[in-house]
Structure formats: C-alpha cells, structure tokens
Amino acid sequence: MSIESVRAFFAEKAPDIAVIESTMSSATVILAAEAYGVEPARIAKTLSLRVGDRVVLIVAAGTSRMDNKKVKAQFGGKPKMLGVDEVAEITGHEVGGVCPFGLKTPLPVYCDVSLKAFDIVVPAAGSTHSAVRIAPERMAKLTAAEWVDVCQPPSAPEQADGVSA
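The structure corresponding to this sequence follows.
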C-alpha cells in the first residue's frame, strides 16, 4: 500500500514528480545516499515522534541530529520516537520508507531548516527501495509543513590534530 499511496499523492498534487525505485535498499541514510547517488546530507529523513499525546513527523537533512531540547521547546513536551509497529500503523509506511507523502493518517509535518541548505533533497517514497527528488520548499508546500529549527547545527570538521576547525 505504501509506495502506491505515495504515487497517488504525487499523481494528484504534483504529477511532474516521479517516484524512483532502486534495486539497492535505501533503508538508512547511508544506503539511500549510495542508491540515489547523492551526499548523505541530501537524504531527507523523516522522524516519527510522539510528543505528549500528539504524533508529528519531522523531515530533516540526513546527517543532522535531532536536538531534544529544541524539540521540547518547539512542541511543549519530551519527544519519543515511535516504535516500528506504531510507525507502520500510523503512517502506512514501513521504517526505512517513511516520508511525509501519502500518509495513512493525516499528521502534522515539520521541515527542519537543515533542509534549506539544498536545492534538491531525496526523501523516501513509502518503501525501502523508493524515493523522490524534490526541492525542500516544494516538499514543505505539498505537505503543508511548517519550518522549524529542531536539529543540532552540523559539527565543524575536525582537523588532523583532532581540534575542531
């Protein structure tokens, strides 16, 4: 059902965007980057969280890390990742294919500002072997997402002596 619901979503809202499939698994950021030939940061990962009695989806750059303090401040409660079965039941997508498109249950979607560093990002498309290429601004518009700042800024690259630049 999952990849089909994503295809139906794009057929209705953005017929110019095609779901792409890979024979390689794209269940993790690293695997997805290899499968679709992009840097890991361009993979738009979707985090499924429960905050209090609400479930929210946060889409962020692949190499970003969620900042629990920022999430708590933004949503007014401590975030908890959904379990594997809960993710599939609520979103209709299996872990590794979760995306903000074609959801089984309407959910609030938030895009982290980490995505704004890229012209095109590659979120999953409902399965561990599918994705789409999309501009972050367009993804936010199509999913009625709100922009938030809930991830830690990327770490400075380390120099040979181990001191951050």
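The helical segments are 2-13, 29-36, 68-75, 84-91, 136-142.
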